[in-house]
Amino acid sequence: MILTNRLFNRNPPSREAKSIYIFCEGADREYRYFDYFREMDSRINIEIYKLNPHEDNSPQGLYKIALNSIVESDDNPNPKYAFQENDEVWIVLDTDKDKEDSRRTQIESIRNSIIDKKDWYIVESNPCFEVWLYYHYHTTTEQFDGIEKCKNWKSYVDASIKGGFDPRKHPIYIERATINAENNFQINENKNLNIGTTEVFKLSKSILTIVESKIREVLEKLE
User: Fold this and answer.
1) Cα(56)–Cα(181) distance, rounded to whole angstroms?
2) Is the pLDDT of residue 95 over 50?
3) What percent of the chain has pLDDT over 90?
4) SS3 (DSSP) at 201
5) Phi and psi for 124 in degrees, rounded to 5?
């Protein structure tokens, strides 16, 4: 099967491109997924921060990395990225509990911290990023044993998609995933995401505002 990311011409980003900076807890699957869209269109510059094994990927740790990478200050005169007007920062988090059960507190603290930061956003998946991948091929959330555990979602998603989710080709269905994820999005009485739902569709909408035509062009070639 031809890998779909070979079906469009990859152009380097222009100097006028809008930049989207993405910080993910996972150093592999999330990185490879969003990397699919890098340089797809010269009007958008997608930068995915590549975590190294020694960096803190907790919600607060990831937020500190984002601050250090974006925000210039006396203590940080040369941040990694040159953030410009209308650029966006997205922090992609899982709700899966950690050993200290501090994740929810950390996430809420970060949400409060970015209120005054223009174009900074947080998106969660409950319990993990695989929920977002699931919606590329499924219109509704299904119930299965251990649905609240991240490790179970990883195996469930790979089993429910023929050959498993492949970040080299399946991200092309991002528009379908956006529709499915938004249609199933629910928040409970505690204002937390229901299990099997994800906010990543909010980030995907921002990406699609620019690459939608290129995505549909590829899909037409596949059909």
Assistant:
1) 28
2) yes
3) 72
4) helix
5) -115, 155
Quick check: helix, strand or coil at residue 11?
Answer: coil
Sign of CA dihedral 220, 172, 132, 63: negative
Residue 221: predicted pLDDT = 86
Sheet holding 18-24, edge to edge: 44-48, 18-24, 88-94, 120-126, 197-198
Instruction: Write down the pLDDT at residue 26.
Output: 82
Quote the pTM value: 0.91
Interval 141-174: pLDDT, tens: 888 888 999 999 999 998 999 899 999 999 999 9
Spatial distance between the Cα atoms of 3 and 210, rounded to a whole number of angstroms: 22
Helices (H), the chain: 29-35, 59-70, 103-113, 130-134, 150-160, 174-183, 200-222
Task: Note whether 196 and 188 are within 8 A (CB).
Answer: no
Residue 22's nearest CA partner among 97, 119, 100 is 119
Q: Residue ranges per domain, the chain?
A: 17-222
The pLDDT score that the predictor gives to residue 6 is 47
Name residues whose C-beta falls within 8 Å of residue 111's C-beta, 6 or more positions apart in sequence.
Answer: 122
d(CA 29, CA 12): 23
